[in-house]
Specification:
alpha/beta
């Protein structure tokens, strides 16, 4: 399988990193909308997980509202993002098990990098994941 590069606007990557930095003790999460394979908007969603310091669960009401907004704006669900405050920026087994949008990309931000934030992109399908190279524009 050849890995395609995923281009993300610097504005969105900066927003994701900022959201993770201002919430260092719990996983942040949300959706990214896009058109024609180009991400255009970041939509933060409340994490309602029982243990938000180590897992995320998108607030279903906000998620449905954002998905409706995406349709109204002729955007597609480009990616789902979340952070790992105390773990590397790779999908955990729980992340893999909870994947429910096989066509979406998954962005993970890690704060566990000794002061340097890390943002990585994955495709998760059939309980396996592949990393896709990220290119900032």
């Amino acid at each position: 399988m050849s890995l395609q590069e995923i281009t993300i606007p610097r504005k969105i990557s900066n927003q994701l990193l900022h959201l993770a930095q201002i919430s260092p003790d719990k996983e942040i999460c949300g959706l990214i909308g896009g058109k024609n394979g180009i991400p255009s908007h970041c939509y933060p969603v409340d994490n309602i997980a029982e243990h938000p310091e180590r897992q995320f669960l998108l607030d279903p009401k906000q998620q449905i509202s954002i998905l409706s907004k995406l349709r109204e704006c002729n955007e597609d669900l480009f990616a789902i993002y979340h952070s790992h405050p105390n773990a590397p920026a790779i999908p955990s087994q729980l992340d893999i098990d909870m994947t429910s949008y096989p066509n979406a990309l998954y962005f993970i931000i890690s704060l566990n990098t000794k002061g340097v934030l890390e943002l990585r992109c994955f495709k998760i399908n059939n309980y396996a994941f592949n990393e896709l190279p990220l290119v900032l524009e």
